[in-house]
Amino acid sequence: MSVWSIPKRKSYRPNFIYVVLACFVLFAGISCVHLFAAGDLAPISQTAFPAGISKHAASDLTTVDFLDVGQGSSALISFPDGKTLMVDSGPPSSRNTLLSYLNDRDVDALDCFVITHQHGDHAGNVDAVLDACSVRDIVFPVVPVNLLIDPDRFEGIYKDIADHGLLIHNPYQGEVILSGDGYSVTVLSDDTGMYKALNDYSIILRVVVGDVSFLLMGDAEAATEQQLLHSGENLHSNVLLVGHHGNRNADSIPFLTAVSPDTAVISVGENNFGQPSSAVLYRLSENDIAVYRTDNSGTVSIETDGHTLQVDSGIIK
């Protein structure tokens, strides 16, 4: 695998840091006054938020947006402390949609940017995201070069990352890549397996917010599911981002039984791959799992206070 020489990040001026810290302390004090005055968390609103308005204004909520990027995948998670996590960037055809979404929500910084694997429908807009947002950490899986469909194109992506002064982070199974008060993001996938397909090297994330959890499967299929079932990792999650857009070789019965989700999201668009497959839809239905599809509903947005969750769909077009 090629090794890139990547420039060190520029450091902020000390005076600037002191100003930022002072503002943060002042803001935290004001927020505490409001929290004590408000008492317990209010129930999650059933009201749909208009497009273009930040839904993360309420600081006690975590928002998970599964974006409508057509045949591909991209999600943005905003945590109560202001940290943000983007998972995948969709296909090149969704570039304007993705950039409009980031602009409408005033997202210009990401604490973590995870590319689950190097297929174009997940990694198609890495350069656009890096141009639009300052990124603290960018996370990629380690993949055998022989599994890359177009190595030259992917080397171009790596060069874009290097040009933005970032080091690629290859995570390990069980690593917590982002955390804060009451939440954590853990990598469940193991890239040491000898998989035959690039999809099975997908980075798999379990996001835990209080008592609520999300499992994001990338394009992982049966081989990865078997590895997860034998890993001893906790798979149980309230929300499942269905693996490989609902491909027939993903989301097996033993896997769904272990995860036991209440809600499933399928990120999918018009395609010739038979996704989502009727077999997967049947398995989800038989397990009484509510299904939301981005091709039918647009962006699927889920909010949680760590105890309950609210699903809004069809809001962002």
Name given to the CATH homologous superfamily: Ribonuclease Z/Hydroxyacylglutathione hydrolase-like
What's the total count of β strands?
A: 15
Bulk shape: globular
Mean pLDDT reading:
81
What ranges have pLDDT less than 50 throughout 5 or more consecutive residues? 1-58
Task: Based on the coordinates given, report the CATH architecture.
Answer: 4-Layer Sandwich
Helix fraction?
25-40%
Structural class based on helices, strands and sheet pairing: alpha/beta
Order of helices and strands: HEEEHEHHEHEEEEEHEHEHEHEE
- Specify the CATH class: Alpha Beta
Strand order of the largest sheet: 6-5-4-3-2-1-14-15
Strand content: 15-25%
Q: Main beta sheet, described?
A: 8 strands, mixed
Q: How many angstroms does the end-to-end distance come to?
A: 39 Å
Radius of gyration: 19 Å
Characterization of this structure:
This protein is of the alpha/beta class and 317 residues long. It has a single domain (60-313), classed as Metallo-beta-lactamase, Chain A. The chain has helices at residues 14-38, 95-104, 120-123, 126-132, 151-163, 222-229, 253-259, 278-286, 294-297, and strands at residues 62-66, 75-78, 84-87, 109-114, 134-139, 168-169, 176-180, 183-187, 205-209, 212-216, 239-241, 263-266, 290-293, 300-304, 309-313. The strands form two sheets. An eight-stranded mixed sheet has the order 6-5-4-3-2-1-14-15. The protein has a seven-stranded mixed sheet with strand order 7-8-9-10-11-12-13. It starts with 13 loop residues before the first helix and ends with a strand. 42% of the residues are buried. Mean pLDDT is 81; it is low at 1-58.
